[in-house]
Design goal:
The protein is 39% helix and 16% strand. It is an alpha/beta fold. The chain has a nine-stranded mixed beta sheet with strand order 1-2-3-5-4-6-7-8-9, sandwiched between helices.
Length: 311
């Protein structure tokens, strides 16, 4: 940890950024804030989502409640290493069909087990004994694998709008799914920003989107990094990982599963399935929340997680 060069984040004055070489060919871009020595919360984000998808207000709320907070770009996204794939092109629709039925898929450049290994290596490189983990969406899937396969690195687990991908769960609503995997109308900056805005509207909490803020966020994300190939490869990683249900049964950590009642990308049945599979997990449904973390819900969410970790 001492050898890391920390610079003030250009996005948040209370966060410092650095690059961490994991030693497996991957370098992760990391931001951290809060007092060294405070209990650490590691935030793991979802599909195609840069670390800035963890809102500053959310991170600051946790820091103010006495935690050290670490967020990072997963491999293939943001300012972390990109993975070049030389193999054959995979048929995504065919993989999705097999995935829904619980059949095994192969051929992705990497899977969620590899991404969980990245997180385990990051914990080692930052010389952290044990961390509390909050995983959102795909990040929640990674967090489930991390807790099951590296139990000594995790103290407590919190999962936000995620799934264990067991067969026959209700699929994403078509509009939400296609907005996530669809292509923008044009590839210039405005086309990408309009596409992002549409995505925020479709998967987010109905009635809680501030359009001006959403446009600013989309622009900031686009200017920081735009790498659609990485989003596709992360999607393939999910499809080639399959069900985590048997892993969930191995998780012994105190676990809180939180889901929004208005999530149409991963309907609440996904969160309930996770909570049912993990021994003694608690499930909390938040009325009116979709597949995002809007400011309106942050005070409640951050208090919920802080309370879980302090118990």
């Amino acid at each position: 940890m001492n050898s890391l060069r920390l610079n003030v984040s250009p996005y948040s004055s209370f966060m410092h950024e650095t690059k961490v070489d994991l030693g497996n060919g991957i370098e992760l871009h990391v931001e951290m804030g809060g007092e060294i020595g405070n209990p650490t919360i590691l935030l793991v984000m979802g599909l195609g989502a840069q670390l800035l998808y963890w809102p500053d207000f959310f991170c600051k709320s946790l820091i103010d409640q006495g935690f050290r907070v670490i967020r990072f770009d997963n491999r293939d996204i943001g300012l972390s290493s990109k993975v070049r794939h030389q193999g054959e092109r995979l048929n995504t629709l065919k993989l999705m069909g097999r995935f829904a039925l619980g059949l095994e898929n192969q051929g992705a450049p990497y899977n969620l087990y590899d991404m969980a290994d990245d997180v385990a290596l990051l914990i080692d490189k930052l010389e952290l004994e044990q961390v509390d983990v909050i995983g959102a969406s795909m990040g929640g899937m990674i967090a489930q694998i991390l807790a099951a396969r590296y139990p000594d690195k995790v103290r407590k687990l919190a999962l936000l709008f995620t799934s264990n991908n067991q067969p026959f769960l209700p699929p994403p609503f078509p509009k939400q799914l296609f907005s996530l995997v669809g292509k923008p109308a044009s590839n210039d900056e405005e086309g990408i920003i309009n596409h992002s805005l549409k995505l925020f509207k479709v998967i987010g909490s109905p009635g809680y989107l501030n359009e001006m803020e959403a446009v600013q966020t989309a622009r900031k994300l686009y200017q920081r990094s735009y790498h659609p190939a990485g989003v596709l490869q992360q999607f393939l990683a999910i499809l080639c990982t399959g069900s985590l249900r048997s892993l969930d049964k191995q998780i012994q950590h105190p676990t809180l599963v939180v889901h929004g009642s208005r999530d149409r990308l991963l309907p609440p049945a996904h969160g309930k399935a996770v909570a049912k599979a993990i021994p003694d997990a608690k499930f909390e449904l938040i009325e009116g929340m979709g597949h995002d973390i809007p400011p309106h819900f942050i005070p409640y969410l951050s208090e919920l997680f802080a309370h879980h970790f302090k118990l």
